[in-house]
Amino acid sequence: MFIEVDMLCKRFDNQSVLEEISFSVNRGECLGIIGPNGSGKSTLLKLLSGVESATAGKIEVNGKQIEQYPRKDLAKWLAVLQQESLPPIGFTVREVIEMGRFPFQNWLGGEEEADIERLIDSILDKMGLNDLSDRHLENLSGGERQRVALGKTMAQQPKLLMLDEPTTYLDIGHQILLMDRIREWQLEDDLTVISVLHDLNIAALYCDSLLLLHNGRVVAAGSPEDIIRTDLIEEVYGTAPIVMNHPVYGLPQIILQGESIAQRTIPAQRKVEKMEIVQ
Ligand SMILES: Nc1ncnc2c1ncn2[C@@H]1O[C@H](COP(=O)(O)OP(=O)(O)OP(=O)(O)O)[C@@H](O)[C@H]1O
User: Fold this and answer.
1) How far apart are CA 130 and CA 58, in angstroms?
2) Which residue CA neighbors atom 6 of ligand 1 most closely?
3) Which residue ranges does the record assign to the ABC transporter domain (predicted)?
4) Measured in angstroms, how far is the CA atom of residue 166 from the centroid of ligand 1?
5) Nearest protein Cα to ligand 1, atom 16
6) From atom 13 of ligand 1, which residue's Cα is the shortest distance away?
7) From the alpha carbon of 216, which atom of ligand 1 is closest?
């Protein structure tokens, strides 16, 4: 077992934000953390990445508690892709990606320049950033910046990647591109991935397992088929989507329903009285 979380609790002042969270993640697995706004997803990610410390409970990585790893060691195998984690201004795409190597360098540099060049070139290639490599970050679109941010974490060559809502602000093309690159990287390098995701359809398509949080507690954990169910989603999100199997991949996908939509004037030939719900 690569990561083992046991009875984790987090309180801020007197408010309990996470209660008795337990789960495990295998090496090379992608775990999606889902749940409504304020359910504790980002806080859980901060505890897992060592940014915040837990009030109670423990997190073990490879049999050792996360607090026992020196900061510098953590930075060598754990990368976190956060919203807006890029430097503000004045750096080119290539320079930012090179910054991913910082945890491995001493004050003299300390890495073979040719090796680093080769690594950065391959990342620029993989992320489709070749034509942008000399452009300044501040002149890029949101989707391009997010690709650079992922490139920077790739340069770090971590064993464990954590992502906080990586597809927010991205159009569907860039969402798929980003998730595909992460998935390929996961499979090629046996990378373990833990990602907070809002989009349940993306979560079902790209995650091996899901952890559903509500009010700081784990409501359910399991495969996408176990978790993306109308009853569970309604209990937690307060809206009941239709769940269907993806026609190509067979994975569960949700289709939203809303009261006011039913009241719209919809041509008779397009209306269906009742939809069969696939569970
Ligand atoms: N530093 C803090 N001090 C006090 N309360 C906090 C702090 N950080 C988070 N919280 C509270 O903890 C709860 C969970 O927040 P968190 O950001 O983890 O939720 P989330 O599931 O990631 O939400 P969202 O989907 O809206 O981003 C919220 O009620 C939030 O106000």
Assistant:
1) 42
2) 12
3) 3-240
4) 17
5) 40
6) 38
7) 14
List pLDDT tens digits, range 68-109: 998 888 888 999 997 666 666 789 999 999 988 877 766 555
Q: Is the CB of 17 under 6 A from ligand 1?
A: yes
SS3 content of the chain, % helix, strand, coil (to 5): 40, 25, 35
User: What structural domains does the chain harbor?
Assistant: 3-223 (3.40.50.300)
Whether the complex's predicted ipTM surpasses the cut of 0.95 = yes
Query: What whole-number distance in Å separates Cα of residue 34 and Cα of residue 199?
Result: 8
Q: Provide the residue type at 117 as one letter.
A: E
Distance from the alpha carbon of residue 37 to the mean position of ligand 1, in angstroms:
8
- pLDDT 10s digits, 119-171: 999 999 999 999 999 999 889 988 888 999 999 999 999 999 999 999 988 99
CB of residue 38 inside a 6 A radius of ligand 1: yes
Please give the structure tokens belonging to residue 219: 């409501």
List the Cα angle 213/215/217 in 5-degree steps: 50
CB-CB contact of 199 with 170 (8 Å): no
For residue 40, what are the CA distances in angstroms to 18, 105, 131, 232?
A: 6, 35, 39, 17
- 8-state DSSP, 51: S
Q: Measuring CA to CA, which residue among 4, 33, 230, 151 is closest to residue 143?
A: 151
Contact 239, 272 (CB under 8 A): no
Q: Is the whole-model pTM more than 0.95? A: no
